[in-house]
Write a structure and sequence with these properties.
Layout: E1 10-19, E2 25-28, E3 38-44, E4 51-52, E5 55-62, E6 68-78, E7 88-101, E8 110-115, H1 120-123, E9 126-127, E10 132-142, E11 145-150, H2 158-161, E12 163-164, E13 169-175, E14 190-191, E15 193-201, H3 204-224
Antiparallel strand pairs: 1-12, 1-15, 2-11, 3-10, 3-13, 4-9, 5-8, 5-11, 5-15, 6-7, 6-10, 11-14
Length: 226
């Protein structure tokens, strides 16, 4: 019987490729019919790809109590790879329509947690290494909903506000496909869209069994060297 017979991976190690640590404001999600009426950002993957997205978290807020609606979340190519210039191109890789329900009290922030089941198209697409992508939301329907943001950042500092892993780099934050989004003079926000994967980790029993096998191997090696 081989060791592989005993190994039973379980999901448990959450990895965020891109996240935003803090927020202090919000931007209304546009209701335009085309993808260019949007809120989102551009990023470039690390060199060790491919990368799979199996969750996306959106920090939201709404003026409506107990409201509901839908919007689209999309993964596109970018029109360039220049920092503070890249926006979404017309090349669409994957788009999912997701639903939201606002809290029972108005103007209450909430997090919309989207898993692979809710993101069947995006989770089914693998990001290539060293490649630029745009991730954004648009075409909201129903209760007005806003995407949370970290505002008040200086020009040329927005990309540094995000936390990235696995060699990812940020390229730009955009609104309505206009690069280097500024919500007011001297204020350049970053958007609270986090995404990543959930890695498989061995069950404790498998790890224990592996340590036994390794230990037995060391004992045999020690005896053979006597």
């Amino acid at each position: 019987m081989t060791l592989g017979t005993f190994v039973s991976p379980v999901l448990g190690a959450t990895v965020a490729y891109v996240s935003l640590p803090s927020v202090n404001g919000s931007s209304s999600i546009p209701t335009g019919a085309t993808y260019t009426s949007n809120l989102g950002y551009a990023f470039k993957t690390g060199s060790s790809g491919t990368f799979d997205i199996d969750w996306i978290n959106l920090e939201l807020t709404s003026g409506a109590a107990s409201g509901s609606g839908t919007f689209k979340i999309a993964l596109h190519a970018t029109d360039n790879e220049t920092a503070y210039s890249a926006v979404a191109s017309s090349t669409a890789y994957a788009t999912d329509t997701v639903s939201f329900t606002t809290p029972a009290t108005s103007n209450t922030p909430f997090v919309l947690e989207l898993n692979a089941t809710l993101l069947s198209n995006i989770s089914g697409y693998s990001l290539q290494g060293n490649t630029a992508y745009a991730l954004f939301v648009y075409n909201a329907t129903g209760s007005a909903v806003a995407l949370r943001r970290l505002q008040g950042l200086s020009d040329g500092t927005t990309n540094n506000a995000y936390t990235v892993t696995n060699g990812f780099t940020m390229l730009d934050t955009f609104r309505n496909n206009g690069p280097n989004y500024s919500n007011s003079p001297g204020s350049y926000p970053a958007f609270a869209i986090s995404f990543g994967t959930t890695e498989a980790i061995p069950e404790p029993s498998a790890l224990a069994l592996l340590s036994v096998f390794v230990g037995c191997g060391l004992v045999r090696r020690h005896r053979s060297n006597r």
